[in-house]
TrEMBL record:
Documented EC number(s): 1.1.1.8
Protein name: Glycerol-3-phosphate dehydrogenase [NAD(+)]
Source organism (scientific name): Laccaria bicolor (strain S238N-H82 / ATCC MYA-4686) (Bicoloured deceiver)
Catalytic site positions: 218 (proton acceptor)
GN (gene name): GPD
Reaction catalysed by this enzyme: sn-glycerol 3-phosphate + NAD(+) = dihydroxyacetone phosphate + NADH + H(+)
Enzyme class (EC, first level): oxidoreductase
Length: 379
């Protein structure tokens, strides 16, 4: 369900009209996901620019149509140009129809703060965000980071894409479906039209807070699932003790936060939870698996070679569940293993020793944090 936006106090910002084809898209981030989306959009005949922080990546990409560090085996369409390492100029940004942010959550605020003064709200590109995390320190969702750095009007027009989508499989054109959410239906529709292909299906919705929370939370439960597998527990344990109970926890956290519980049954919720909790292609699952096998967190992070958002997000989740008073034993166990030195074997044993309880007791939808965020956005 999309909400009716009020136009009273603040301006109703809309992105510029999008061309029917050949949109000019600038992607921030040339990691696994930024470059996989560049490939997908290049494949769909858009004019794609991919900003990278590494000069060597930019040079190598433009010469060989390959990414020096990520998805190394993939040959990218020739209509993608790498740019950087300086952030693009105001003139360049103004020529773009779409700005797509594929950088990890912890770095978003700094980059948006620099970019915001360069944006022209009357000629605003479609703004799309695909990161899945919660900011350390502030425990802010991306919506709030956008509101803080770019203002409420741009945050209301921002669109979020989330769902079960491994970069490696998107570049192989494996059929994939994702959720596309915004407070502004028109913006979600534009993002959906940009990405939708027979092998990449988009489903729109109006609960960006729920989409963001589910995408961030599933990473924490993927760490738990990997941990259980790494310890040698089998399918029953993964699917009952971790995934299904994890879904119940996620839904309770989301409901208390103020999101719709139904969002957690969608692609960004249960879809991505199942995917990430059951595949060694997931970096979050891999972190958990290696912890379960006895490796140290520092050792894992130093060799993973890519971001695992769940590791930092667990800190934000811990703050949120403590503040909301939610009973979330799996998320608490992951926090204790990552940050309090708890032994993984004890963590899983303790989960199994929990007293009997009701299967699902959704908290009242008081929605304090969402209400505060909506107030910040003038909604
Ligand atoms: N990989 C996937 O399959 C996938 C799928 C869906 C969503 N995501 C989400 O997309 C986001 C990016 O993930 P990824 O897989 O591309 O990660 P990655 O580790 O592959 O790449 C990270 C990128 O961030 C850049 N970066 C690092 N520090 C930065 C900074 N200070 N400022 C700007 N950029 C910086 C790196 O140069 C790199 O390009 C994450 O939030 C992730 O959860 C990933
Ligand atoms: O590799 P992960 O654990 O970051 O998961 C990637 C995507 O979020 C899967 O949808």
């Amino acid at each position: 369900m999309f909400r009716q936006l009020r136009s009273s106090a603040s301006k109703m910002v809309r992105s510029k009209p999008q061309p029917l084809q050949n949109s000019k898209v600038l992607i921030f981030g040339a990691g696994n996901f930024g470059s996989c989306l560049a490939s997908h959009l290049g494949d769909s005949q858009h004019d794609v620019f991919m900003w990278a922080r590494e000069q060597s990546l930019v040079n190598y990409f433009n010469e060989h149509h390959r990414n020096l560090f990520y998805l190394k085996d993939h040959i990218f369409p020739s209509n993608i140009t790498a740019v950087g390492p300086e952030l693009p100029s105001k003139e360049f940004l103004n020529q773009m129809d779409v700005l797509l942010f594929a950088i990890p959550t912890q770095f978003l605020r700094a980059n948006l703060s620099i970019l915001h003064p360069q944006l022209d709200v009357d000629n605003l590109p479609l703004m799309i965000f695909v990161n899945k995390g919660i900011e350390i320190g502030t425990h802010a969702l991306t919506l709030e980071i956008i509101a803080d750095t770019c203002g409420a009007d741009i945050a209301k027009a921002a669109t979020f894409i989330s769902g079960p989508s491994f970069a490696k499989e998107i570049v192989e054109r494996q059929p994939t479906s994702v959720s596309v959410a915004s407070f502004t239906e028109e913006e979600a529709d534009k993002a959906s039209a940009l990405f939708h292909q027979p092998h990449f299906r988009c489903y729109t919705g109006g609960d960006p807070i729920g989409i963001e929370l589910s995408g961030a939370l599933k990473n924490v439960y993927a760490i738990a699932s990997g941990m259980s597998d790494g310890l040698g527990y089998k399918n029953n344990t993964r699917h009952s003790v971790i995934i299904t109970r994890g879904l119940a926890e996620m839904t309770c956290i989301g409901t208390a936060y103020g999101a719709s519980p139904l969002t957690f049954l969608g692609l960004s919720g249960v879809g991505d939870l199942f995917l990430t909790c059951s595949s060694s292609n997931s970096r979050n699952y891999t972190v958990g698996y290696r912890l379960g096998q006895g490796e140290s967190l520092d050792g894992i992070m130093n060799t993973l070679g890519s971001v695992a958002e769940g590791v930092s997000t667990t800190k934000g989740v811990k703050k949120i569940i403590d503040e909301l008073g939610i009973n979330a034993p799996i998320a608490n166990s992951v926090y204790d293993v990552l940050y309090n030195g708890k032994d993984t074997q004890n963590a899983v044993r303790e989960l199994m020793a929990l007293p009997p309880s009701k299967e699902l007791e959704l908290p009242p939808t008081a929605g304090g944090p969402a209400r505060q965020l909506l107030r910040k956005l003038g909604l």
